[in-house]
Hints:
Elements: E1 2-9, E2 16-18, E3 21-37, E4 43-52, H1 62-79, E5 90-91, E6 98-102, E7 108-113, E8 119-128, E9 135-150, E10 155-165, E11 168-170
Antiparallel strand pairs: 1-8, 2-3, 3-7, 3-9, 4-5, 4-8, 6-7, 9-10, 9-11
Amino acid sequence: MTHQASTFGWSYDDTRWSGRQPYTPNPRNHKITVRAFNTPSSVRFTDPWGYDNSQSQGGLPDELQYALDVLWNFAISHVGLPLPSPWGLIRLDEGSRLEITRDSDLKGGTFRYNAEPSLQGADWLWYIDSPVNTGWYLIDVHALGEAGFNYYPFIHVDDIDIWLFADFEVYR
């Protein structure tokens, strides 16, 4: 099995004004799509979980939160990428504003978010069927959302379209 995760962050601009009417920047229809292709062995997308930072924090003691933040900052300093800390992400409960669907061939799935927080994420497992062949397992992660202004109705300006690659190699 291989465990992977991805986040989708938003950065909001200031409110715009036209006369006396405010136009507030806002996204909608967020989704993260994961898909395996060209794999040396058959893989199955399993155990998907969605995360949303608009949920209330719950459970982690302050000391543990601090230790995790220090560990994350140390790891990121060696990677050299400005990745957000995943510890603030809270698992969504059943009946939340998240919909997870798996592709019929189990080679991927989609996480659809109905809420509008600034950071959302997902994690999943790849189960590799036996025999596990060596080589590169190519995984696409596609984050997509609509950006616009929150004014009745929503004014769609552009799509935020991010392609990530979560490839991994099995070797002996």
